[in-house]
Amino acid sequence: xIKDLKICGISDPExxxxxxxxxxxxxxxxxxxxxxxxxxxVNYENLKNLVNVNKKxxxxxxxxxxxxxxxxxxxKDLNFDYYQLYDVDPSRTLDIxxxxxxxxxxxxxxxxxxxxxxxxxxxxxxxxxxxxxxxxHKSESFDHSLLEQVPNEVNKMIxxxxxxxxxxxxKNKRFIIDLSGSIENSEGKKDINKIDRLLKLFAKNET
Length: 207
What we know:
Blueprint: E1 4-7, H1 13-20, E2 28-32, H2 44-50, E3 59-65, H3 69-75, E4 82-86, H4 90-100, E5 103-109, H5 113-117, E6 128-132, E7 156-158, E8 175-179, H6 192-206
């Protein structure tokens, strides 16, 4: 069965409030903290207000690409449970985890088997390993069959242009599913109706 669900790229309080108060909220909600190329990026002042809420049953995830020490100091007191780190090597990942006493999602961008094998370097450090596409903010796909070699014991999250209708296909996979672009409208804004459909479909496939 699908282990859990993550909705990523939340940038406005109305959408966040809808998700948090949904009958079937996701376990993880992600916020783009420092990647300004993304249309889902939230600047610090807005982010500080956005995440200063009761998370209820969900965990808040700060999505970070090669974060500087200055930025990490700036966000250290915000209401996050996890840091999702892109382009951060194992040694620095461990330093961040220890210094800020935070759970870590290590994000690997995948195009071949060698990229997948990098998960082994993070096993003793990261709480979750995310396998994503090379597209970062562009919601590109990658060949999910490359993950068949990764043992079930590894706490895996999977992203990369996953669509709502793909959810039943993951029913027998032990993955945390991460969606963003597929729950947006044509203008690139999160779509409440699509989010509602996703959460209800996920709940149905859990049973």
